[in-house]
Amino acid sequence: MAKNSTVFICSECGCEQSKWLGKCPSCNSWNTFYEEKITKTTNKNNFNENIISKPINLQDIKIEDVPRFNTGFEELNRVLGGGLVQGSLTLVGGDPGVGKSTLVLQLCNKIDVTGKILYVSGEESGTQIKLRADRLHVVKDNIIFLGETNMELIEDTIKDIKPQLVIIDSIQTMYSDDITSVSGSVSQVRECTSQIMQICKKQNISTILIGHVTKEGAIAGPRVLEHMVDTVLYLEGERYLIYRILRSVKNRFGATNEIGIFEMQDNGLSEINNPSTFLLSDRSENLCGTVIVPALEGTRTILVELQSLVTRTVFGMPRRTTLGIDFNKLNLLMAVIEKHLDISLGNFDAYTNVVGGIKIYEPAIDLAIAMTVLSSLKNIPISNDTVVIGEIGLNGEIKSVNLIENRVKESEKMGFKKCIIPKSNKDSIKGKYVIEIIGVSDLKEAIDEVIG
Ligand code: TYD
Ligand code: MG
Prior knowledge:
By secondary structure, the chain is an alpha/beta fold. The chain folds into three domains: 2-41; 67-273, Rossmann fold (3-Layer(aba) Sandwich); 278-450, Ribosomal Protein S5, domain 2 (2-Layer Sandwich), CATH 3.30.230.10. The chain has helices at residues 74-79, 100-110, 126-135, 151-161, 186-203, 275-279, 327-341, 366-378, 404-413, 423-426, 443-450, and strands at residues 6-10, 16-17, 33-37, 68-69, 84-85, 89-94, 117-121, 143-146, 165-169, 206-212, 231-236, 243-251, 259-265, 268-271, 290-297, 300-312, 320-323, 348-354, 386-388, 391-392, 398-399, 418-422, 436-440. Thymidine-5'-diphosphate (TYD) is lined by residues 94, 96-102, 132, 135-136, 264, 266-268.
């Protein structure tokens, strides 16, 4: 029997199947399978081929300090774990138009790389990049532009000009002669990445790949590359909001889940070093259904405002909608309130959101969500100088949260007067802060303290 010469690959996660499927069994996305020719890959993946591997005792391996470049952006440095590691491969993903090229071009201007920087663009012409560079006030004279999409030619250029930093904008526009499928397909994107990885690792060149997150699936998303690169960053942001969040989802040289916050302006992205001030800037006095919660993002605490609106259902099933928090969490918390406080919510719609387009998925915001729902339901405002922290168990008990000190410290720093925390957390921080700290052990106690 003749062997299959094509394979179907999911453009979301790279899962391979011998026949077409409507739904990917691996990542559950629909309509993402595309037919691709099977390509014989030569065994070129051992990028350390000049090093002959010998087994060595772990204790004998000497750690040298990883040299890092200062990117010139404090936020970006922190997300990267202290700067861009020399010789590392970084993937910057995000929706088209979110500002990836802008961020990377600004980085080229600010980073303390003394050697050459090669900016390879398969999307924009030299003129377009130059226009953007002028707008962003890029003044460095070591940035070299190359408008090329063929990997082999890019490789030659890298060998030729020996840059210290290479930017590939975007990986989905690149193609390699070794592979017959169209550029943007899973196998092309993987092959191009592995080629660039070999050359850069061999020559100790830092590389930044830009990858578009796609909804349609015809182009392979950056997720198919996540396992190959050292660091994966995603630039997120709503089209109608000015700020952008850079999130690290994988980092071989630092903590993950770290975020950096930027603001998109006329002359590019500028960092927001104190996000709490920024997020709380336009709060009004004494509104019902809103409270501040110190949430953890990576290693940093950010004070965010949570809001809920609870209204009587006019027709049929009650509606529940969330923005920035998990939908099921709202449902679950409302069920806990119903059962534990004996309040009927079956005839009420509930809408909860996090102000400013931030997304928070940690359980420490449970108590704050419950308090906003109750405050809106009862039409009683929560005092403006109070913050609420705590995880809620299914029996209405308040469970302790991690890193309580950071949260209390940030709240005190931002001028809040009262801090509602889980009782079990209270002992560890007794007497250390000026801010009034109140420990609560269940929902009833919390509601007495917060809403009264
Ligand atoms: P861009 O970096 O081209 O996005 P990506 O590379 O992720 O596709 O950013 C494009 C958007 O950013 C565009 O909508 C315009 C906006 N923008 C500004 O608001 N200010 C600026 O200074 C620049 C350069 C872009
Ligand atoms: Mg771009």
